[in-house]
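User: Structure please.
Assistant: Input sequence and predicted structure:
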Amino acid sequence: MNPIQPPPGGSARSSPSSSNRPRRRPDLTLPLPQREPALAVPLPLPPTAAAASTSHPMGFSDLEKVNRIGSGAGGTVYKVLHRPTGKIYALKVIYGNHEENVRLQICREIEILRDVDNPNVVKCFDMFDHNGEIQVLLEYMDGGSLEGKHISNEAALAELSRQVLSGLVYLHRRRIVHRDIKPSNLLINGKRQVKIADFGVSRILAQTMDPCNSSVGTIAYMSPERINTDLNQGQYDGYAGDIWSLGVSILEFYLGRFPFAVGRQGDWASLMCAICMAAPPQAPPTASREFQDFINCCLQREPVKRWTAAKLLTHPFIVQNTTPTGGRATGPVSQNHQIACIAELLRHCPAFAGAASNFE
């Protein structure tokens, strides 16, 4: 074994002065910070039984059906009471015993819809799988739908359009396509809010149910390229399809009737010819130039020429007749005028026939 050699330039023997001096150990400890009692934050305690009892988690057994408020191709909607809180909701029961893969797809879609939070979109709270039926708990809209309403007042129609477009902008930015915009899916409540309903699940049902089954729904509000896949090189833009459906709905409100030459409940062949082969409907000459142009921007046969929802919010028909919520008037529109527009809109809803005067 070779002896350990001293380092170069060093000495094997220490000097007397260094041998008498005690070796100093390095202090490797760090000082702890001073504790400020005024800034101390206690750890949270587990929830007490009293606090837990106030949260009232949703349970299907806690819901009591009050009455049926509507039915359509996708299912039946009931007004329900949540007994623990006394709150009113809408419960949509989706028809059919779906296959497992379809049920899982619907469940995934509804999980996404739970995160949707916009004042112009009906809120989805929960979902239940009860006795083989999928049931969706939704926000209750006490004014019902705008189906069959005749709204000839352009200012009121602009306010309605602004709110629907605001909801569509929100959905489209989250990459959610409605695919079923029509008057019966536009709801109103006593707070003067117009909201889009019945989105998401209708898309899945349309993909999974037999297309020959008449219960799937009407094609009356579908865009030409969605009905006839030979149009637009077989490409379907769902966002542009929503804009076409909105334009048909708004023009129907103004005219008080379905805007095509056939009835919306007509046979499939007649509707297809009217929508896909005839020229798109237009607003009558008696309407303002702004409204006529607004409808034209929605009902362009080529999807790429239709304005987006965000761009339509900047259209003169909207800007000159409405005031954005919480903002200043962008045109010669006062807050009183906006309230008068909503009052006019509410007059067309039977549930608020006596309440419209409250907004004047």
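The CA atoms of residues 5 and 173 lie 75 Å apart.
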